[in-house]
TrEMBL record:
The keyword rRNA-binding does not apply. Pathway: Cofactor biosynthesis; (R)-pantothenate biosynthesis; (R)-pantoate from 3-methyl-2-oxobutanoate: step 2/2. The keyword Oxidoreductase applies. GO terms for cellular component: cytoplasm. It catalyses: (R)-pantoate + NADP(+) = 2-dehydropantoate + NADPH + H(+). PANTHER family: 2-DEHYDROPANTOATE 2-REDUCTASE, 2-DEHYDROPANTOATE 2-REDUCTASE-RELATED. This is 2-dehydropantoate 2-reductase. The lineage of its organism: Bacteria, Bacillati, Bacillota, Bacilli, Bacillales.
Length: 301
């Protein structure tokens, strides 16, 4: 049994909490809002379509948390990473190892700087949608790939074996940077376009004009991130558009509900890297500025 804290009670936090509790790990969810803490305390957590309500420990993020965990899984969005990193640096969140599962690469620089900690990076291939403060809909079944950013490879391999289960597979990935970069290319193509065009992921493939723009963003991201497996990666992007055809991408949802998007950690990261390498990325810059502009109109203050 691993003593796990999950920071963030959103879609991915609740999904991890459900499956890791079912696999008999001791799970504590650390949430931001008092109402969510009360709801989970009263009713436990559950997955849609399943009767079972599971009890988990729950704490509020500004509580004093005396416990040191074996593993803390950080499931907040990129937009909240700064605050969580501050709490880790202040010793408010304490663990032997930290697993970060965000889309995008904006957070890598700050989390690499933790002292004496094992840092793992996860790429989540599941789809999840939060239905209420204690219930999540598992919209797409996939796996979680975890690689080492800092620490001991053997310890990570042991942990991955402890975490994995039939219903919630966790795999060890040898090259953390590569899997994160590949996920970044996928998000840099699908997320801004679905958000700007207000379409579902699958609709990107229904139209040769959308495909032409996807290819421009794809080419720019591949060059900047120095990835060579072009044919496989393009195939992967189209596969994801098909397998999540009826999903709204997270950026499309964030923009629609007026929440800050993860554009800075996705397209913003590519633009910053491109600048350092003196590479021109006009299509990525266009979608970045467009999402920023749209957000300025829709974000709730
Ligand atoms: N959902 C999905 O299908 C997938 C998501 N991802 C990635 O996973 C990450 C998480 O996404 P997702 O779960 O969908 O996002 P959500 O917006 O559903 O959840 C984020 C949660 O973090 C909470 N939070 C924010 N700040 C803090 C804090 N300081 N302390 C504790 N909790 C905090 C929010 O609280 P509050 O509820 O109060 O706002 C919210 O519950 C993102 O990077 C996303 O790109 C990757 C693959 C698939
Ligand atoms: C893979 C994809 C595009 C699925 O919707 C995603 O990760 C997201 O929406 O952020």
């Amino acid at each position: 049994m691993v003593r796990i804290a999950i920071v963030g009670g959103g879609a991915i936090g609740l999904l991890f909490a459900n499956y890791l509790t079912k696999a008999n790990h001791h799970v504590t969810i650390i949430v931001r809002r008092k109402e969510q803490e009360m709801e989970i305390k009263k009713h436990g957590i559950s997955l849609t379509g399943q009767e079972e309500q599971m009890d988990v420990e729950v704490r509020q993020s500004n509580d004093f948390i005396e416990q040191e965990f074996d593993l803390i899984v950080v499931t907040v969005k990129q937009t909240a990473i700064k605050e969580v990193v501050l709490n880790i640096n202040r010793g408010i969140l304490r663990a032997n190892a930290f697993l970060f599962v965000q889309n995008g690469m904006g957070h890598l620089t700050s989390i690499r700087q933790f002292k004496n900690k094992s840092i793992y990076i996860g790429v989540v291939e599941h789809g999840a949608k939060r239905i209420s403060d204690n219930m999540v809909h598992h919209t797409g079944i996939g796996k979680v790939n975890v690689g080492l950013l800092k620490g001991n490879e053997h310890e990570l391999q042991v942990l991955v074996k402890q975490l994995t289960s039939e219903k919630f597979p966790v795999n060890y990935a040898q090259n953390a940077e590569k899997i994160v970069k590949e996920k970044l290319v996928i998000n840099a193509v699908i997320n801004p376009l679905t958000a700007l065009y207000r379409i579902k992921n699958g609709q990107l493939l229904h139209n040769e004009h959308f495909i032409a723009v996807m290819k421009k963003l794809f080419d720019e991201a591949m060059v900047v991130l120095n990835l060579e497996n072009r044919a496989d990666m393009w195939e992967e992007i189209t596969r994801i558009c098909r397998s999540t055809a009826s999903n709204d991408s997270s950026m499309q949802v964030d923009l629609t509900v007026g929440r800050e998007t993860e554009i800075e950690a996705i397209s913003g990261y590519i633009i910053r890297e491109a600048k350092e390498k003196n590479i021109s990325v006009p299509f990525t810059t266009f979608v970045y500025e467009s999402i920023k502009g749209m957000s300025a109109i829709t974000e709730r203050g």
